[in-house]
Amino acid sequence: xxxxxxxxxHPRFIPDSDFKNIRNGVGTSNDGSTAYFAxxxxxxxxxxxxTLFRDTLNLRNAxxxxxxxxxxxxxxSGRSDFGWQLGPIVGVLDPDG
Length: 97
What we know:
alpha+beta; five-stranded antiparallel beta sheet; about 10% helix; flat
C-alpha cells in the first residue's frame, strides 16, 4: 500500500500495532528529483515505518514494497542481508559511467 498519501499516513495504519516485520519502501522528493529508498534494520509496524518518510524525510508520498522479501545488498558498505536470496531488485545506474 501507499505509506504516505499527499502528506497523510495511510488511514488504516495503527500506531501501536504489533504486526511488525522488516519493511522497505520508497518516496520521492516533492519536486520529483530525488528518490529515497529505506529498509528497516528491525521489525517495525506500518505506522512507524511510514512516519520515517513523512516526518523525518519530509516526503508527501511514499510506497511500501514487500516486507517478506526485504533484503539489501550494498557492496560499498559490505551489507548483505541473508545471502543472495533477493526478491524484486531496484538498481541505480550511472548513465555516464
